Amino acid sequence: MAILPFLLVVLAVAFYFTTAEERLRIIRAVPPLFRRASHAAAQRVPKRDAFDDALGARTRWAIVAPALAIVTVAVFIGEASGDGAVGDPATLVAWGANFGPRTTNGEWWRLVTGTFVHSGMFALLVNMAVLVQLGLVLERLVGHLTFALVYIASGVAGSLATLYPHRVAVITDASAAAAGLYGLFLASLVWTFIRRGELTIPLGALKKLAPVAAVFALVQLAGGNESSGAVVVGFLTGAVCGCVLTTEVADRKPRAARLAATAGAVLTIAAASGVPLRGVTDVRPELERVVALEQRTVPAYEAAVEQFKLGRMKPEALARLIERTIVPEVQAVRARLNNIGGVPPEHQALVADATEYLRLRDESWRLRAQALQKHNMLLLREADRKEQAALHAFERVRPSSTP
């Protein structure tokens, strides 16, 4: 309806600038044009209907694609209904997001469940649009099991690809899995073109799928390097699986034996790819202990100093507080930090700073205790110097280890 005013303006201009004879010729030419357009449309519709009929004869209903979409939307509703924000890392991990320190320490199922978790509404809408629109065609073309296998395999491959460079990132959404569907569809399209049969994909089907595919591609291009790598790997996974599984897709669904072999190969490759990632450590709890140590021991010592200034404590009592309470706490946190392994590359600098802080802090507290016992100002100044160096290292740890 929005184009109607434009057409009226065009007709008015044509009427004004043409003669009566020219207007008569235009009017006589309109009916044949309408007949040609109607004839062309009539030729296209049966071909499209024949494709739909053939799809229905092969697989009557798409079951997996709607089920996957329902589960994904339900998970997002659960995220939004909880106490935390939808995009909060703790919320995402609680709902099954892929998080290296958890995934690589026995929770490998997160490679799959992370595909169903989304950190925002827009990503959810785009991915579900792909899953539903493309899935309703593709699942009936290749079958339920093939569709499910490629979707999950592409999602797992994308998750693994993201884990390698970002081992402590919280990885979510179905972009890699959706890209895998496009890879599978491309392989199916190529095979139906090479080996034509009753289910050769018509141009009309491609035109209907194009707008959502374009939006998906633009969103991924704008998503940054972290997500684009996973999408590329997901697409390639779907394409490779499709090249193996859909060689006869124009005439039949993939054979069960080939489907089982592909599933076994996917599982083997995924397991082998996960071996180098085993045992990634989340060092943030240990760094939080370091921060809590400083925030706990300094106020305790300062309160004791106030008692000393009021004449209620002697220097020896301050020294005993340091030696019997503060230094053992520092040593306990230091021992825990020294014993952790599997530190991811992005946290190694933080761990080094925390280790340096604890070493200097331990030395500063010991020197302060000795200075108080011996009433030695030189030792006290040395303790102050060590303390300043320790606090300098502490400031590099604190911003990254606390919210």
Number of strands: 2
Structural class: mainly alpha
The structural domain count equals 3
The helicity comes to: over 70%
**Overall pLDDT metric:** 84
Unreliable stretches: 1-13
The name of the CATH topology of the largest domain is Rhomboid-like fold
Strand content: under 5%
Run of helices and strands: HHHHEHHHHEHHHHHHHH
The CATH fourth-level homologous superfamily of the largest domain: Rhomboid-like
> What Rg do the Cα atoms give?
33 Å
Structure overview:
With 403 residues, the protein is mainly α. The protein folds into 3 domains: 20-58; 59-277, Rhomboid-like (Rhomboid-like fold, Up-down Bundle), CATH 1.20.1540.10; 284-401. Helix content is 77%, strand content 1%. The protein has 16 helices and 2 strands. Strands 1-2 form a two-stranded antiparallel ribbon. Helix 8 (144-163) packs parallel to helix 12 (256-274).
Q: Which helices and strands appear, and what pairs or packs with what?
A:
Layout: H1 4-17, H2 20-58, H3 64-81, H4 89-94, E1 98-99, H5 100-103, H6 110-113, H7 121-142, H8 144-163, E2 170-171, H9 175-194, H10 203-221, H11 225-245, H12 256-274, H13 284-309, H14 315-339, H15 345-374, H16 377-401
Antiparallel strand pairs: 1-2
